[in-house]
Design a protein that fits this description.
There is one protein chain. The chain contains twelve helices and no strands. The chain has two domains: about 90 residues, no CATH class; about 220 residues, MetI-like (MetI-like fold, Orthogonal Bundle). The protein starts with a helix and ends in a 7-residue tail after the last helix. α5 crosses α7 and α8 packs across α9. The longest helix has about 40 residues. It is mainly alpha-helical. The radius of gyration is 24 Å and the shape is globular.
């Protein structure tokens, strides 16, 4: 297993380099100007000086390797200095990736949005996994029962209804008519005591519920199908013929084999947590990663979009590796060494 992980990590390096080059090339060719949002009264000569200072007019490869060095070397060094309060060389000689829109470091903007995204999108994902897998197992074991039919009906509704519809519906019911929860998420709210904690929970309930409902419906149907594929196989009949209880057969034998495709779906869905829920964040005004990406694209903030997209690519490659490792743990037939 150790050698497999090392091989995969070594393979991931050229993969990520190729991905970074493709991302940078596509976004570099996209229309965008760091001076586009400036007042029209600024002379053209000043605008050109700003482009030169930001390196916009440099050759493509020069810009790419400069951005790559900033992302791989300078930004981690800056994070280490801030995290551990140490000084590593001359920080003034390490230019950071700057957002064209805010003129501030792109990584700082991302770091500010990550907690909001994890609170809302991350919590909803955890809730959906904890609810969907047990319901999917029970629905498959009691196929065509009233429990399975109700679960299938609710899952079809959750999977068919888009999040913007359920989000607006919850705002109308619980915010406008009942007045139970706020319709807008207050990002600046700070939890200091029990009362402020209650306020935080109230403003999280609706966006978390909308996302969890949609994700639970998808994962529940997938888990149910995976369990059904294994319930009637020969090894299950053999386990039952040995006198094993149904609880042992389902939870030990069937579940372990059925979790392999489920683990793939869960692991590949985790990077989406950091990407944010773009539609839901827009509806409830959550200043998360999804909202940041939309704002960056709308304002043609190319460096910020490049940085965000590459971070998402790194997360996808990393959690692919995590899923492959879990395969070997769940299925003893899978050997990597």
């Amino acid at each position: 297993m150790g050698r497999f992980i090392i091989r995969r990590l070594l393979t991931a390096i050229p993969t990520l380099l190729a991905i970074s080059l493709i991302i940078f090339a596509i976004l570099d060719l996209a229309p965008g100007d760091p001076t586009g949002n400036l007042p029209l009264t600024i002379p053209q000569e000043v605008r050109e000086q700003m482009r030169e200072a930001l390196g916009v007019n440099d050759p493509f490869l020069v810009k790419y390797f400069k951005w790559l060095r900033q992302f791989v070397v300078y930004e981690p060094l800056h994070w280490v200095e801030q995290r551990f309060d140490v000084q590593i060389g001359d920080a003034t000689q390490r230019p950071r990736i700057l957002s064209w829109q805010t003129r501030g470091p792109a990584m700082d903007l991302i770091a500010q949005r990550v907690p909001q995204t994890l609170w809302v999108v991350g919590l909803s994902y955890v809730i959906s996994v904890l609810i969907a897998i047990p319901i999917g197992i029970l629905s498959a074991y009691k196929q065509y029962s009233w429990f399975d039919q109700i679960g299938t009906f609710i899952s079809m509704i959750g999977f068919s209804m888009p999040t913007f519809f359920t989000g607006l519906l919850m705002i109308i019911i619980f915010s406008v008519y009942l007045g139970w929860f706020p319709s807008v998420y207050n990002t600046t709210h700070v939890v200091t005591d029990w009362a402020s904690f209650v306020v935080q929970v109230k403003q999280m309930i609706m966006p978390v519920a909308v996302l969890a409902f949609f994700q639970t419906a998808q994962l529940n149907r997938f888990t149910r199908a995976a369990i059904l594929d294994n319930l009637n196989l020969d090894y299950v009949r053999t386990a039952r013929s040995k006198g094993l209880t149904e609880k042992v057969v389902v939870l030990i034998h069937v579940l372990r084999n059925s979790l392999i495709p489920v683990v793939t779906l869960v692991a590949l869905g985790i990077p989406g947590i950091f990407a944010g829920a773009i539609i839901t964040e827009q509806i409830f005004r959550v200043n998360g990663m999804g909202q940041l990406l939309i704002t960056a694209i709308a304002s043609s903030d190319i460096p910020l979009v490049q940085t965000l997209t590459f971070i998402f690519a790194i997360l996808i490659v990393f959690f692919n590796l995590i899923a492959d490792v879990l395969y070997g743990i769940l299925d003893p037939r899978i050997r990597y060494d």
